[in-house]
Amino acid sequence: MNEVGFDNSGQDRGRGGDGRGDRPLPVTVRTLSGHTHHDTVRASDRIRDVTVESVRIFVARGELAEGDYSLTLPRLGDAELDPTGTIGEVGVVRGDVLVLVSRAPQVDG
Length: 109
Prior knowledge:
Elements: E1 4-6, E2 12-15, E3 24-31, E4 36-42, H1 47-60, E5 69-72, H2 87-90, E6 97-102
Parallel strand pairs: 3-6
Antiparallel strand pairs: 1-2, 3-4, 5-6
């Protein structure tokens, strides 16, 4: 009998380890000013959708100005996560901290 297997990515390897599952992953989304939002995402969620929803939450709480933002995963470096990719494709795992960064050009003033 095959057991259902799980790895830290939240992907359910299923019976026989085929990786087709879509388990919930608890993550934290943080702004550069330190505000946080705890969320549960799935490996199949698009980065763009997680970004839009996170910005909406922070703006509604008055913790972020409306604007164009992207997500980064500091554990993997400073690069923006591909907005067309999925949580699973970019390597997000259970307990990760995702950081919202402004995509607007920074201007010294």
